[in-house]
Amino acid sequence: MLPARVESLSGLSAIPPEYVRPADERADLGDAFDQLAAADHHTAPRRIPVVDISPFLLPNQQHKQQECLEAVRAAASDWGVMHIAGHGIPGELMDSLRAAGSGFFALPIDAKEAYANDPAAGRLQGYGSRLATNASGQREWEDYLFHLLHPDHLADHSLWPAHPPGYVAATREFGRRIREVASALLAILSVGLLGPATNTRLEEELTAKGEEDLLLQLKINYYPRCPQPELAVGVEAHTDVSALSFILHNGVPGLQVRHDGRWVTARDEPGTIVVHVGDALEILSNGRYTSVLHRGLVNRDAVRVSWVVFCEPPPEAVLLRPLPELVTPDSPARFTPRTFRQHLDRKLFKKQQPPAAPDDDKQQQQQQDGIAAAS
Q: H-helix or E-strand containing 275?
């Protein structure tokens, strides 16, 4: 039998067969450091856009707002991902968050098991490892810690690690600050879709006109050293179900996004936060903003850790559907209405839903399409 945690496999000379990806997916897998080095030697290396959003957060910066707006809109439309600078979260707080999460994963496995989840019993929050949820039946080279981050009064703090001692304070404060950044970015994206004086529209749609709050879910991904990175992935190709996802990491490469038929490896852009457009925002924008297909590579020599905050609408209170202003005879609705829970059930648990609009199946098939295109 395999050990329960991927961490305990990292000292092997070869990975167990359950972690070997299908042959048609392995064509462009490899060590994340090698992939980034190869990209640097390309004649025209692609880079995920870096956008400074401080003109919308600082006083006396109105003259720079239009340029910022255009940059955010272009990144969300063309890439579905961007690095944001000027977000206002202190570097010291981000460092504290990294230290707290890394400190938890530095604990012995037995100590981490005190926070173990049980997906089979419906307990998704806690410490766990990625089980096979794909057609191939293969597993991913990843352990993780997952729990609700915001609103704080809904969080089950018994699932938040007591060690290291700074975990709760740093994580809670980071959640508060990310919630503010989410509002700012949604305001920019709203204006980019519908024009001036619409800066609250997307957040209103995602929070039932302010009657409920956005849910922030934190997932700390731990990718141990892998003896055969050309055969494995940390996380397979997928799009996020969220509206937005915010990502910090420990400086070790691994994130790849799909752009114009190629995988692009994210670089370390110090001080920035990576932001993904997710399915919920793609639905509201009627496809004008792109839910980015992405995956995680692993490497031989370094542990990669990433902190992902998924910004989600309340599961039942919000009906996700294209904004009426974006639906015209020339641009019909590309997605059928559904609650966030219905979207989760359909995408992740394959439960039956009403007949789909033309683009609905895109989000279910992006993983397979991305793998096929990569090969």
A: strand 273-277
Q: How many residues does the chain have?
A: 375
Two structure tokens written together for 214:
């956005």
Among 160, 166, 155, 157, residue whose Cα is nearest residue 115: 160
352 in a structural domain: yes
**Helical (H) or strand (E) element with 23:** none
- Tell me if 115 sits within 8 A of 159, measured CB to CB: yes
Q: Which of 147, 238, 343, 347 is catalytic?
A: 238
DSSP state of 79: I
Distance between CA atoms of residues 263 and 45, nearest Å: 11
* pLDDT at residue 368 greater than cutoff 90: no
> pLDDT digits over 150-185, tens only?
999 999 999 999 999 999 999 999 999 999 999 999
**CATH label of the domain that carries residue 65:** 2.60.120.330
Task: Give the number of domains in the chain.
Answer: 1
Provide the token pair at 50.
């870096």
Measured CA angle at 247 (ends 181, 207), to 5 deg: 45
Q: Which residues contact 361 (CB under 8 A, 6 or more apart)?
A: none
Catalytic residue from among 31, 52, 143, 240: 240
Mean per-residue pLDDT, 331-342: 96
The answer to whether position 1 is within a domain reads no
Nearest-CA neighbor of 134 among 303, 348, 362, 285?
348
In 185-253, the DSSP E strands lie at 215-223, 235-238, 244-249
What pLDDT does 136 receive? 64
Q: What is the mean pLDDT of residues 284-308?
A: 97
Question: Is 294 annotated in the active site?
Answer: yes
What is the distance between the alpha carbons of residues 5 and 9, in angstroms, rounded to a whole number? Answer: 7
Q: Is 240 part of the annotated catalytic residue set?
A: yes
Q: For residue 147, indicate whether it is catalytic.
A: no
Tell me what the mean pLDDT of segment 337-363 comes to.
71
What is the pTM (predicted TM-score) of this model?
0.92
* Residue 248, in any domain of the structure: yes
What range does the domain containing 200 cover? 6-374
**DSSP secondary-structure letter at 169?**
H
Catalytic residue selected from 294, 343, 347, 362: 294
Report which residue type is found at 164: P
Contact by Cβ (8 Å): 307, 97: yes
Amino acid at site 323: L
Asked if omega into 55 is within 30° of 0 (cis), the reply is no
